[in-house]
Amino acid sequence: LPAENVYHYLDQHRAQPHFQQKKRNGNTSTDSEGLTGSPKRGRKILQTFDNYAVSLRKLTKRVGDLRKENKKLKQELKVSKAQSKGLSDKVDHLKDVIKELVDTNLISGDALSALDKTKKTRTKETELVRQT
Asked: What is the pLDDT of residues 30-85, one digit of tens each?
């Protein structure tokens, strides 16, 4: 049931008393459908409905807030993924440059192996983050 229907129902029925005050056998009353019950019980039921309506309003507001927060977090995740992709592209480019420098003997091969080790470590860290 959509929340609006519940609110409409409650507002509609709040205007009319659930249990009309027809005295019969002391404190019992009869509503329009012929059911018997005490007026106090009718007020209690109406109060319960009101409590449910308040709870429902709070929950629907909370769900809306959580959806907004989720949307914002998804957007931030897209941005961080794009930044990560950009950084990995730059690392790959630098690795290619270092390979060219090693091939032309301008620097030693130790720099390249050090770069490989750091990349493997970062890949393991990234996998751990993705698993959690």
From this structure: 444 445 556 677 778 888 888 898 999 999 999 999 999 999 999 999 999 988 98
The amino acid at 39: P
Tokens 């709040």, residue located:
14
Domain ranges of the chain: 3-131
Report the C-alpha gap between 61 and 71 in whole angstroms. 15
Cα separation, 60 vs 62, whole angstroms: 5
Q: How many CB atoms lie within 10 A of CB 29?
A: 21
d(CA 39, CA 99): 88
Q: What is the DSSP annotation of the chain?
A: --HHHHHHHHHHHHHS-SS----BTTTBEE-TTS-EE-HHHHHHHHHHHHHHHHHHHHHHHHHHHHHHHHHHHHHHHHHHHHHHHHHHHHHHHHHHHHHHHHHTTSS-THHHHHHHHHHHHHHHHHHHHHH-
Residue 53, classified by CB atoms within 10 Å of its CB into exposed (0-12), middle (13-18) or buried (19+), is middle
